[in-house]
Amino acid sequence: MNMSAVPARVTKTNTVVSFRGIEKSYGAFQAVAALSLDIRQGELVCLLGPSGCGKTTTLRMLAGFVEPSAGEIWLDEDNVTRVPAYRRDVGIVFQNYALFPHMTVAKNVEYGLVNINMPKAARQARIAEVLRRVELQHLADRYPRALSGGQQQRVALARALALQPKVLLLDEPFSNLDAQLRVRLREELSSLIRGLDMTTLFVTHDQEEALTLADRIVVMNKGAVEQIGTPEEIYDSPQTRFVAEFIGTCSLLEGRVDEGGDFLSERGLRFPVARRPGAATAIIRPEYVRHAAEAPGAPVHRAVVETSEYMGAATRLQLRVGDARLLMDGRYAPGRRPRAGDEIDIVIDPTGVRFVTDGN
Ligand SMILES: Nc1ncnc2c1ncn2[C@@H]1O[C@H](COP(=O)(O)OP(=O)(O)O)[C@@H](O)[C@H]1O
Ligand SMILES: [Mg+2]
Prior knowledge:
Number of domains: 2
CATH class of the largest domain: Alpha Beta
Organism: Siccirubricoccus soli
Number of helices: 8
GO molecular function: ATP binding
Protein name: ABC transporter ATP-binding protein
InterPro entries: AAA+_ATPase, ABC_SmlMolc_Importer, ABC_transporter-like_ATP-bd, ABC_transporter-like_CS, Mo/tungstate-bd_C_term_dom, P-loop_NTPase, Transp-assoc_OB_typ2
Helix content: 10-25%
CATH topology of the largest domain: Rossmann fold
Domain ABC transporter: 17-247
Shape: elongated
Oligomer: single chain
CATH superfamily of the largest domain: P-loop containing nucleotide triphosphate hydrolases
Bound molecules: adenosine-5'-diphosphate, magnesium ion
Strand content: 25-35%
Order of helices and strands: EEEHEEEHHHEHEHEEHHEEEEEEEEEE
Largest sheet: 6 strands, mixed
C-alpha cells in the first residue's frame, strides 16, 4: 500500500467541548468540584450519578444557564465561559420536553430557526430534513398534546438538531417514559446521533442507559468525578468503592493480601489473587462466583444460601461463606434453583476479582 496516498488529516484539535477545572458553589455548598473533561468530535459522553450529584448543574454550565464559580469551558476554539447561552451553539433536550403546546410539530421545530433569522425557504427545507431524521414527517401538523411521550421527545430532539449545534445536551430525556419505550428510544437516539456524528453530553442516573449508550461515562458523586472511562472500564475495572457499588452489583470484601498471594477477608474468606501484599478491598461481581463443579481446580468454599431471588434469565443468590457474604448469579433449569437454607460448593473465579484503591 502506498502510505503517501493517505491524506494527512488537518486536525488542529479533535476536542469539541473542554471543561477545565470547573467548579460551582452555592454559598458554602459545592455542587460541582474540579471537573476537567474533554469531549471529542462525535463522542457521546454520559454524566452518570445519583440524584443531586451535580449532573444537571454541569450540563447547564455548558449550556450557559449557570455560571461556573471557577474554571473555564471551551467550545471548539473558543473560551465560552462568559458567553451568553443564546450564542453558544448548543442544542438542548430537557426531561420534560418543553414543547410549545399551542404550536404544531413543524412550528415547534421552526421556532429556533426564526430566531436566527433563517429565510423561509431554508427553514422549510431544514424542518423537513430533521423531521425525516426523527421519522416524524407525517406528524408535522399535529399539536404536542396529540402525540405520545416518545413522539414528543423526538420533536424536542428535532428542534435541538434543527439548529445544527456543535454539541447536543440531553438531560434525563427518557425519564418520563415507560421502560420498554425507553429502551427503544435510546436505540433510536443512539443510531441517530451516531449517524449525524453529533457530539453529545447525556445526563442520566440510570446506569444501564449509560452503559448501553455512552462512548465514555463520567461517574459523579457529591459533585466530584469518581471515574471517567469507557463502559467496559467503568464496569470491569471500577477504581473506587462508589463506582463499584453504583454500577452493577458487587460484593465488597475488606481484608488483606498475604505474603503467599492469598486474599484473606476480615470475615475469613480466603482465595488466591494476583496482587502485592497489603491491605485491600476486593470487589467480586456475582457472575464470577460459580458452582464448584463448573470450575474444577480452584479452591472450593462451602456456602449457605441465605436468599434466592429469581430475576428471569439468572437467579441471584445471597450466600454466606463462614462469616462473609457473597452474591452469586446462577442459571438454573426450571425447578433446579437453590433455595434459602441449601448448602452449595462454590469457587471464586480469580480473573473476576478487582480491587478498589480508596478506603484502604
Ligand atoms: N440554584 C441552586 N441553588 C442552590 N443549590 C442548588 C442550585 N441548583 C442546584 N443546587 C444543588 O446542587 C446539587 C446538584 O444539583 P443537580 O446538578 O441538579 O444534581 P443532579 O442533576 O445530579 O440531580 C443539588 O444538591 C442541588 O440541590
Ligand atoms: Mg438533574
